[in-house]
Amino acid sequence: MPVKAIKTDSAVKPRSDLALANLRRRILSGAIAPGALLAESAMARELGVSRVPVREALFALEREGLVVFSDTGRAFVRQLSPRDFEELLQLRLTLEPMAARLAAAQIQPHLHALRTNIAATRRARSLAEVTRLDLEFHELILTASGNGRLLKLWRSMRGELELWLGRLHRQHQGQRLDTCEQTACAHEGLLKPFSSHNASLSESKMREHILNWREWLPLQSGQ
């Protein structure tokens, strides 16, 4: 007796991945504004897929911190407040200076990747790319720390960091400042104490670098 083929969700999965990539890109670039409603039916029509891949993408974006669901089950782009900013800043100040201290002693195998990242930041063609490369630079340092738990904690908030940092970069660029060059120069400054394996200086420079983020806070009221 012939065995009937079992249907799988292999066709749905790629559509879900495409929907996820599309929605993530548009949210992080600001094309879909903070607080905007993400209606499944409208998103499905726009993306040319059924509602199932859209629903799966929205759940994934919720896990990344980019989407929130209301009590009625409707999905919205996360809208970060100044309080959210302060909480993210406090976490960064806890995790990243510690990671910098740990990374200083074993940074050598990662220096090429860090310098390549800085060069790519200077060549970036969009603010969304600058934001991605900015966070990639910091993730490389977390990786170089050799502390997997530190890295895991940092990655758990990367989506929200990218959402907020992208917003700040767009507003910063609106002040007619060269965001690409300024970001690259700031990261080059961080590399100097790493190159000399100075743990204390690496830690203090990272703390100073992150605290500079607070200076951008007043810009958020412009959006």
Structure explained in plain terms:
The protein is mostly helical. It has 2 domains: 12-77, Winged helix-like DNA-binding domain superfamily/Winged helix DNA-binding domain (Arc Repressor Mutant, subunit A), CATH 1.10.10; 82-222, Four Helix Bundle (Hemerythrin (Met), subunit A) (Up-down Bundle), CATH 1.20.120. Helix content is 67%, strand content 3%. The protein is built from 10 helices and 2 strands; from the N terminus they run αααββααααααα. The protein has a two-stranded antiparallel sheet with strand order 1-2. A hairpin with a 5-residue loop joins β1 and β2. 28% of the residues are buried.
Mean pLDDT: 87
How many helix segments?
10
Structural class: mainly alpha
Give the beta-strand count: 2
| Low confidence ranges | 1-8, 218-223
CATH class term of the largest domain = Mainly Alpha
Write a compact overview of the structure shown.
This protein is an all-alpha fold and 223 residues long. It has helices spanning 12-29, 40-47, 51-64, 82-104, 111-123, 127-144, 148-155, 158-174, 179-195, 199-211, and strands at 67-69, 75-77.
